[in-house]
Amino acid sequence: MIQEYYIPTTVADALRIKADQPHYSFIAGGTEINARGYPKTAQHISGLISIARLGLTGIKKEEKNLIIYPAVTLQELIDSPLLNEEPFNMLKTAASNVKNRHIRNMATIGGNIAACKSCSDMIPILMAMDATLEVYSSEDVKHEESVLEHIRKKEKYLITKITIPFRKDFHIAICRYTRTSNDLALINVCLGIELEGGICKDARLALGGVAATPLRIMEIEKFLIGEEFNGKLHQYAQKLREHLEKQIHPIDDIRGKAWFKKELAGGLVIQALYEVAQKGGIIL
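Given the sequence above, the corresponding structure tokens read:
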């Protein structure tokens, strides 16, 4: 049961509280803290440390990177004019997949990463965009790590900045399946491809809903790199699906059978491939 709630005004103060009370959790918008499947349930959290007044808000563009601070809400992502151009506009698409406006007004991008849900809408696109996180594990220890590295760790430290590099000719598609428009995604696919003259120069594929946390499917990325898509996309689509089925191992649960999730994932990846190809001017 939550017994104490701290509202520090500096990152240093927040980290000192965390050092003194390591079992306390950081909180941003609070939309996940009571949710089933959160790393710790509210019954097992005795204290919270709010990041609301740490100044970790805002979005800005630098020469080679886009910077998003972790307390930015999903609605602020949607409303930001800095995210109007491709591929950053897909961050808006990912955020808008959380259909409830009241939740988007409170839920933050940093909290979405920290909650680390398999069905997360933001983690797959951040992995596809090679986002890195500035993370403090203590007041004196700061380091950078990829989103993939972060979600693989059992202990989730304080995220203070999200950096996304600019990538020329990088096209992204997001495809997902939900039972209702307001539901969490059963399967969430994000595919990013860098195209040059119809040839795939680089690729990123991230999936949610097929494991305990979202995954990057690097074997599929390697399969795509170097391939020419003009006029050949149909033959690659089926091969892509066959390769994917060997790489993912979803489980049976209340949301669906494993075979159903695998079929969905294959179909959504093919859909994403066609959407990316269309954005890149590929001749089908």
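The chain has two domains: 4-165, 170-279. Try to locate this feature in the token string yourself.
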